[in-house]
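Lecture 7, part B: from sequences to assemblies.

Below are the input chains for today's worked example.
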Amino acid sequence: MKKLVIAFSLVIAGACINKVNAQCDTIANICYKHITAQFISDGQLYRALLLNSEETAEFHSTFFGETTYRIAACSGTGDGNLVFNIYDQERNLLFTNKKQKNAPYWDFKVKSTLEVVIEGQLDANRNPGSGCAVILIGFKQK
Amino acid sequence: MNIKKNLTNRKFITPVIFGLLSAIALTSCGGGKKDENGKDEIVETADTVKTSVLNIGGQLFSVPSPIQTALLIQKSGITYDKAVLSASNKVNTLSTDFARSLNLGIYGADLGYVSLYNQTQDALGYLAAVKQLADKLGISAAFDASTMERIQKNVTNKDSMMVLVGIAYRGSDNYLKNNQRTDLSSLILTGGWLESMHFSVSAYKTKPNDDIKWRIAEQKLALNSLISILSGNQTKEVSDLVAQMKDLSKIYEGITFTYKYEAPTDDSLKKVTYINSRTEVTVTDEQIVKISEKVKEIRDKILNSSQS
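Predicted structure of the full complex, as structure tokens:
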């Protein structure tokens, strides 16, 4: 009986993971279109399941000098569901797409190398529930 | 008797439990509801969480693309040097998943490097090596067939190659995360990063210049990111690799960065923000020599220990 419950729980967990993965894959496929051919992908896909609009997903990155970066941020099947913010190492806000009508992508021309924190958050006004957040990075030399 | 009774009960109970658990499962996984924006909604299962920070993909930091380093090297006027690359014909000598994963990252970086210099024949060799290694790791599905076909067709077009190699590795990163194989994806990232460090230190030896010197120094965060990512894997070979990378990190501790914030400027029409802040790096030639020696030591160990 105990084994049965454990086995079933594993099946359920697997089904849930598959469902979340499938949802994230769909969103990623939509998001890829924002990293257009003039940008080279950094070869990674950053994603997180956010349970509500109060949760924030973040990761640290280095923006190298003399480079133009494109950040694409997506959630759901439409554009503008994810708010993304970029901070420097002193926590100065360098950019928020909130001020740009939740633009799904934005370019950054970087003069000098700096370490940044990129945050993603579901927009409470557009999506009060949960969702998969996907962030992509592309770059090109100046 | 007892046994029969138990069996009878189990026959009855099993569908009931399955039914109940299925109901729970449907609730837990969500029924694929769409909200008014057409967004898939996943029904919450956890307690409501106050503002919290998650790590994307279980990963703390991003690791720069090896192609980015190769681009800087080419821009610095360094000519193509096949001698800095790993031999693409040793796939069959790699006997462990540890060695195969690291080399998959190394070959990806090499593929980017040869493509950048329009070395078609060498690119085909590395492309074949990538495919073979992915097969041997049992992750051939990680490299989307149509992307691999596009790479093959565009092998003479350097710009397309750069973009397609990036797409192929991003796809494999996603595949491995979906399949809970972050152990492999972290080693692939590490292999690619180590190879790009090897490109940089070799280029600096050939033609020293400040851009490459600074780029080597600026890998401090990436190195610490990789150490964090790899530290989740407790196998002996990975622990040994982490120990070596920690030694490398100690050399980096002596490098200093002075950051000066300057307000960025936005161009909303062009969807561009100009990041105006400045960072000054203080790194000595002696530190670069030490980094070069350590990178060589780690890379050599990977290449030698990986052969049976």
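Note for the exam: Chain A has one domain: 2-141. Keep this in mind when comparing with the next example.
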